[in-house]
Write a structure and sequence with these properties.
Length: about 210
């Protein structure tokens, strides 16, 4: 499976919103555009227009990876993903894949924190077990990248964008803060607050997009 960057972003957003805002899922076109263009929890940040998202959804439907429906008496089309069925993965694996699709290469520790709203992993070992299972499939869905100098953990990346996407992820160097390192308790608390703030921003953006529909 070799997806375009637009297909990766749209699918990743649909998976994320299914878990984090189930009352708004499936997503309207406006809500899906807003989800793709979020400035938080996205790397890279993009600026897709409605035509781009609509064309991407069409290509995903043709591949059986997404579906669009319209409720009885409604003029608004709603979009949903079909990755769970297409890939044969569970909720834990889907959460990991969506974060990799939306944020690029991640360490197991980052994945545990950033998948929390979709799936709560009981330990770092549980995240690593999920990654290993995805990597050992007949057609692997993730791969571990070479550890960067000065970094303790290796990063993982999804393989849904093919070799080109993997090469781009390997070349990307994560930004490291120059601020003094905080203690583990404070660092975890700050990370949790940032995730909660990002979740609130996402919900406001989605609600605003629905009001504009």
């Amino acid at each position: 499976m070799e997806l375009t960057p637009e297909q990766v972003r749209v699918l990743g957003c649909l998976v994320e919103k299914e878990a984090t805002t189930p009352d708004l899922y499936p997503l309207s076109t406006n809500a899906l555009v807003a989800a793709c263009n979020q400035r938080s929890s996205r790397d890279p940040v993009v600026a897709y227009d409605e035509a781009t998202v609509t064309q991407t959804m069409l290509s995903l439907r043709e591949r059986g990876l997404a579906r669009t429906s319209r409720g009885e008496g409604s003029r608004v089309y709603k979009h949903a993903h079909g990755l769970r069925e297409a890939l044969g993965v569970d909720g834990a694996a889907l959460a990991v894949l969506s974060v990799l699709m939306l944020r690029g290469a991640q360490t197991p520790g980052e994945l545990r924190t950033r998948t929390e709203r979709q799936h709560e992993f009981p330990s770092l070992e549980a995240v690593e077990a999920t990654l290993q299972a995805l990597a050992r499939r007949e057609e692997p869905l993730v791969a571990v990248l070479e550890r960067l100098p000065g970094h303790k953990e290796s990063r993982w990346m999804h393989l849904l964008a093919g070799e080109e996407g993997l090469a781009a992820a390997a070349a990307a160097i994560p930004v490291r803060s120059s601020a003094p390192a905080a203690g583990p308790g404070l660092a975890a608390e700050v990370a949790e607050l940032r995730e909660e703030l990002a979740a609130l921003r996402e919900r406001v953006e989605l609600l605003e997009s629905l009001l504009d529909a």
